Amino acid sequence: MKPAFLDKILDRMDRLDPQSVAPILIRLVREKGFLETVFDALKEGIVVLGQGHRALWLNRAARELLGLDARFVPGASIEASLPEEFWRAVEAGADPGEPRHSLHRNVEIAWPRRRILQIAVTRLASADPGAGDLLLIARDVTEEHRRAAMTVEQERLGAITTLAAGVAHEIGNPLNTLNIHLQLIERETCRQGACDREKVARHVRVCADEVHRLDHILHRFLRAVRPTQPALEPCLANELLKETLDVLQPEIEKRGVLVEREFGRDLPRLLADRGQIQQVFFNLVRNGLQAMTSGGILRVRTELVGERLAITVRDTGGGIPPETLQRLFEPYFTTKSEGTGLGLLIVQRVVREHGGLIEVSSEPGRGTTFRVLLPIAEKRTRLLTSEETRDARAAAGEKPAPRRSRRAGRHADAKLGT
Question: Contact, 206 vs 186, CB < 8 A?
Fold first, then answer.
């Protein structure tokens, strides 16, 4: 894209002194290269749009944010990179009579990965018809939205935490007392040899079962709203998943589901609470099974992704509608007739308390995928030994540090954990 005044200079090149024009052109080329370098260093994506949503110029960040590969050339349309609703808003909101008027929209895109972009569009005032009509500036605000959602969730859960503690105390004590007295009644009934003792004992056992069920619901509620401190220890994800699948094998066979295990080899150990993480796996696998009413395929995959271990559970059930997908981790929200709406909330809480992430994606009619990312026990960083540090300093030409006594050095290393 060449400025209008540069076109005029080129048109009059034959009438100008070459020695006078050459320094000007060199300076313009250098300034153009400098500006492109500056714009490519920005994290915000910048696009100059022409007619037909053609990107006349764009920086490196814009290519990345919009998912444009290396084959994309300036002048091509970027209409497919953003939703139709956005372009309709641009056409309706960018007033040609107000060059300084800006349109601001938050746009969710799914390619190359799901993220939320904050986009500002401003009409350019230029006499050059080829200079572009609109300036588009895009900023990735995915992390900001995630933090805001977490804050809202914490506030929502915080409002019921105090209530939960009081309810647990008030309900827990009567349940314990009731359970004790039911045991005494059953014992006394059997001792007295009453003619209807079997009937009475059966009723007592039903009452006891209901007490245990209420106690179980109460504890699940408390785990959902009350922070817990995981007892971290190295453990193998593949081993925990195998145990989980073995426990659920009767349900797998009953539903006629085929389980495909894609377990990575030689994976590092997780740093996790074995019981809590196994409960996470149990809930995710069972949810996948319950999503498939008449057969299907459940894929369970483990792999190393950077410094985290990824555990993926994918079913081929009916999928989850977008409006439901957004509410999966809300308290008491459930799509099951007998569900409590706390299972996935507990899963999310446990994963976050382990320093991990949980992601979910679904396509109606094709299935749902849960992906858990958890930190590994074997860190890939380490402290250099004293000898390695001295060798590195010597190689860099630095003077060696004063030697410490063996006792002092040992004490310092103990503090650093080497």
Answer: no
102 lies in the same domain as 198: no
Domain residues for the domain of 409 are 386-416
**51-109 confidence digits (pLDDT tens):** 888 888 888 888 888 888 777 888 888 888 887 778 877 777 654 444 455 778 888 87
CB–CB of 53/91 below 8 Å?
A: no
In the chain, the number of structural domains is 4
Is residue 289 domain-shared with residue 364, that is, in the same domain? yes
334 vs 364: CA distance, rounded Å? 17
Residue indicated by tokens 């709203």? 225
Q: Which amino acid is at 249?
A: Q
Inter-residue contact 5 to 128 (CB < 8 Å): no
pTM value is: 0.47
Beta-carbon contacts of 132 under 8 Å, excluding residues fewer than 6 positions away, are 1, 48, 49, 50, 56, 57, 124, 126
Angle between helices 343-353 and 197-225 (to 10 degrees): 50
Question: Alpha-carbon Rg of the chain, whole angstroms?
Answer: 32
Alpha-carbon gap, residue 84 to 366, rounded angstroms? 25
Both structure tokens of 176: 């314990």
Same domain? For 295 and 204 the reply is no
Pairing of strands 257-263, 357-363: unpaired
